[in-house]
Design goal:
- The chain is of the alpha/beta class.
- Among the domains are: 159 residues, P-loop containing nucleotide triphosphate hydrolases (Rossmann fold, 3-Layer(aba) Sandwich), CATH 3.40.50.300; 40 residues, no CATH class.
- 46% of the residues lie in helices and 9% in strands.
- Helix 6 links the parallel strand 3 and strand 4.
- The chain is elongated, with a radius of gyration of 23 Å.
- The structure holds zinc ion (ZN).
- Zinc ion binds next to helix 4.
Length: 299
């Protein structure tokens, strides 16, 4: 993997932008742990076999919306469609991390724009040619929130869009996107990121940030984040914010995240292994005494 481009330059004095925003990928090559999606998408872009409509599904915080923006960036790059946006043209600059957004890429939060009127409004907007770029691209986030009537009002447009229109639906619940819409999309399922991949990514990010993190901390962060990149970065953000000059210590991490100290767990496992109830109970008591919930101790 190439070293991460440092996001530090965009950090303002006294203002901390969330890691998730600062390191948000703006090319497919930088998306973490979703190669089963990004590689075929890049191949489709290279061979100019791009669909009219896409459905990106999967757990929260795994890169669906980010990838939708990247796909839009690939499609509308002046030198594209391409699997690797040039990064220089007006569209690429506007759609880059920290950019202003492009007038030809419309992001719609379907959670709050889910009715028939919104669908009609979208239909009207789709009728207009792009203002500058190749395509008018509609990204519908939380697409499962669109009502059945809303979807029905969109059906014909998604089925036979004008040549300049592309749709990207993103959702955590693809089963709630009505079948007639779903069957007209290319469906790419995103997944939780495997712990090893996520740990490696967080380590590179800490290196880029110049933050020292004690051994054993990042696996805890990954565990707390449950395989979601966004949640893991949010946890790491908090640990870094509360760290002193010595960096993020293991002690600080376990107390903040509510995990049981590995040594404590080892004691408990050894006690169970040796069927030694007498020493297991004091171990549990020690855990509770430190304010550790019994449930994580068992898990
Ligand atoms: Zn470009």
């Amino acid at each position: 993997m190439p070293p991460l481009a440092s996001g530090a330059a965009t950090r303002l004095k006294g203002v901390t932008t969330a890691l998730y925003r600062r390191y948000r990928p703006d090319t497919f090559a930088d998306v973490v742990g979703q190669e089963h999606v990004t590689e075929p998408l890049m191949q489709a872009l290279r061979s100019d076999r791009v669909a009219h409509a896409y459905l990106f599904s999967g757990p929260r915080g795994c890169g669906k919306t980010t990838s939708a923006r990247i796909l839009a960036r690939c499609l509308n790059c002046e030198k594209g469609p391409t699997d690797t946006p040039c990064g220089q043209c007006p569209s690429c600059v506007e759609l880059a991390r920290g950019g202003s957004g492009s007038v030809d890429v419309v992001e719609i939060d379907a959670a709050s724009h889910n009715g028939v009127d919104d669908a009609r409004d979208l239909r009207e907007r789709a009728a207009f040619a792009p203002a500058r770029d190749r395509y008018k691209i509609f990204i519908l986030d939380e697409a499962h929130m669109v009502t059945t009537q809303g979807f029905n009002a969109l059906l014909k447009l998604v089925e036979e869009p004008p040549p300049h229109v592309r749709f990207i639906f993103a959702t955590t619940e693809p089963d709630k996107v009505i079948g007639t819409i779903r069957s007209r999309t290319h469906h790419y399922p995103f997944r939780l990121v495997p712990p090893g991949v996520l740990t490696g990514y967080l380590q590179r990010l800490c290196d880029a940030e110049g933050v020292t993190v004690a051994s054993g901390v990042l696996p805890l962060v990954v565990r707390a984040g449950g395989g979601s990149v966004r949640d893991s970065l949010s946890v790491l953000d908090q640990l870094i914010a509360g760290s002193g000059p010595e960096g993020v210590t293991y002690e600080r991490a376990i107390s903040l995240l509510g995990f049981t100290d590995a040594t404590l767990l080892d004691d408990a496992v050894a006690a169970v292994g040796g069927a030694d109830g007498a020493s297991l109970l004091p171990g549990v008591a020690r855990g509770i005494g430190r304010g550790t919930e019994p449930a994580p101790l068992r898990g």
